[in-house]
Amino acid sequence: MTGGEAVNGLGVAARGDEPRKPNLAVVGATGAVGTVMLGILSARQDVWGEVRLIASARSAGRLLSVRGRQVEVVALSEEAFEGIDIAMFDVPDEVAAQWAPIAAAKGAVVVDNSGAFRMDEDVPLVVPEVNAAAVRIRPRGIIANPNCTTLSMIVALGALHSEFGLQELVVASYQAASGAGQSGIDALREQTLKVAGTTVGEQTGDLRAVIGDNGPFAAPLVLNAVPWAGSLKDDGWSSEELKVRGESRKILGLPNLRVSATCVRIPVVTTHSLAVHAVFEREVTQERAQQILAEAPGVVLYDDPGAGEFPTPNDVVGTDPTWVGRVRRSIDDPNALDLFVCGDNLRKGAALNTAQIAELVAAELTV
Amino acid sequence: MTGGEAVNGLGVAARGDEPRKPNLAVVGATGAVGTVMLGILSARQDVWGEVRLIASARSAGRLLSVRGRQVEVVALSEEAFEGIDIAMFDVPDEVAAQWAPIAAAKGAVVVDNSGAFRMDEDVPLVVPEVNAAAVRIRPRGIIANPNCTTLSMIVALGALHSEFGLQELVVASYQAASGAGQSGIDALREQTLKVAGTTVGEQTGDLRAVIGDNGPFAAPLVLNAVPWAGSLKDDGWSSEELKVRGESRKILGLPNLRVSATCVRIPVVTTHSLAVHAVFEREVTQERAQQILAEAPGVVLYDDPGAGEFPTPNDVVGTDPTWVGRVRRSIDDPNALDLFVCGDNLRKGAALNTAQIAELVAAELTV
């Protein structure tokens, strides 16, 4: 089938009757997530009419490749949303808070990957494998995409919840540098260059003296672990930790789910990992949990430690699914499972899930 | 006071009456922990007569510095324990299993840092800040030093347990390369050299192609996280995870403590970190928990995230205490605390705790 033509069952082109393909805007097209998004749009089934690339004024005029064509980036403005049906936003919270309602007022359905709307009662928070139906109720014309840390585990947990009934989560994260955007990726590469060739004594001395600038992180990241992501909220919790709690509750539809998260950044470029302790209403078995995960859409079970099989970020980066390994029933609680989960924070954790939501909306608009 | 002399209250030397200082053997003196041990023996109050350095036959004859003197390493043999009062072992499990009973039979009290005796009912497992009195009951003449992962958190947990009554631990570890010994340190340095200067594309491609050999790890460690340490035990648990459970129970004297651990290696040279979720019998408050930790011997509370204060491995490496930050009361459970804990796995996690146990025994022998 050639572009722009629909073919009926008899092989006759029905050009005049075909529904118009929706026009898509990518807002924040030049960032770390935006870059992955253009790759994803180029690789997935093409359901789009125009794909318009929008970024800040200083990126306007740049040419980026999407769907095999060079497209010029336009500056963010009200007019930039003219004729757009669906607008995917990957921009800072304050930019999304200002511009998503403007895009919605211009008639676009907004799929927003910032934190600005996720906990808004009138904005659904959607993971297609878990709560696809929620996209249809969007009184503000905005659908929110979860935080990358929540997204890196929630597909696997949704599958287990359906069978066993989730009651409690205790989560420790191993978050990648790219969760802090392109500046995080650049900072880790720069820091790695600076420590390479130093002595073990220097590597276990003050790393600040070796690397200079911490970049966007609260401490040196290379050869270190930084138990901090986001901003300080009440009682010592970080915004990132509260997102894991609030978003898991909302996506799973469990307003009383008990959640404790400790969010830690480690020197990995891309792919978040999480050690998850999940307590269920019903008794679990390792075998049944593995079976559920092996069959769940969007999940890869990679769990044979005797054969060296467990997911690591380097196995998972660049792939779409949530990878799960180290599935164990807790020795002291027959209702609890311990897991190690990895997800590419730029793909399923951001761009891919946003694209999946946009495709759900597109299917609805064109039906 | 000059060496070898004791002075009574009148300033008169009482050379003939002074108790002999005990002779110490360091078995495994040339390893990663042994090297740190010699530094610790040189820095702490010197309670020892002879310090004899013992290693494998291939290291015999090497000269190592301890207490400001060059000492020649002797080969491990039955005769090497002649005249030794206390022998500290840091050698592989199978070497300890064979040689610790031989040293004990020669009259030495053995303080062993291998896994060979830790769960033996006739061998106390000791952390001086938590259960010092246990050193006195040692029917086999052997005292065990806990695994470095358990040791990196247990001093802090012991203090909290005394006040609140510990019931359950959910632990995720961020373990350093040096937990795998000198070969782990060397492998991480080598891998860091190899990835430095590669592109982000190469860093998020197959790292095996860049680094070649994984060293002692089950996957590439640099720019990665490896959810595996130790060997495979029943039901998918690793030996490291079972050590955290079994040893925490034994040290705290809580045979029914519920423990779930997920042990993960990350690219840090030295200092293990742990995200700990601890559930207590009694209700906790953030303020009281912080107060207990601030006052606990062997613990540093470093917990003001608004001022950028939380422990990272690079802050802690080379120091003696257990550092604790990110102290939070769980939002959904008034009886639970979430913490981030760091401890130098070669010092408190191995050599320092071994030295502290040996000093406890030395004090008893010379009284």
Walk me through the structure.
The structure is a homodimer of 367-residue chains. Chain A is an alpha/beta fold and 367 residues long. Helix content of chain A is 32%, strand content 20%. Chain A has helices at 32-43, 93-105, 128-131, 148-164, 182-195, 200-203, 207-211, 239-252, 286-295, 313-316, 347-366; strands spanning 24-27, 51-55, 63-66, 69-72, 74-75, 86-89, 109-112, 142-144, 166-174, 258-262, 272-280, 299-301, 322-329, 336-343. In chain A, the strands form three sheets. In chain A, strands 5-2-1-6-7-8 form a six-stranded parallel β-sheet, sandwiched between helices. In chain A, α4 packs parallel to α8. The longest helix of chain A is centred in the C-terminal third of the chain and has 20 residues, at 347-366. The first copy, chain A, is globular and about 60 Å long. The model of chain A is unreliable at 1-14 (pLDDT under 50).
Secondary-structure map:
The structure is a homodimer of 367-residue chains.
Chain A lengths: L23 E4 L4 H12 L7 E5 L7 E4 L2 E4 L1 E2 L10 E4 L3 H13 L3 E4 L15 H4 L10 E3 L3 H17 L1 E9 L7 H14 L4 H4 L3 H5 L27 H14 L5 E5 L9 E9 L5 H10 L3 E3 L11 H4 L5 E8 L6 E8 L3 H20 L1
Parallel strand pairs in A: 1-2, 1-6, 2-5, 6-7, 7-8, 9-10, 12-13
Antiparallel strand pairs in A: 3-4, 9-11, 11-14, 13-14
Helix pairs in contact in A: 1-11, 4-8, 4-11
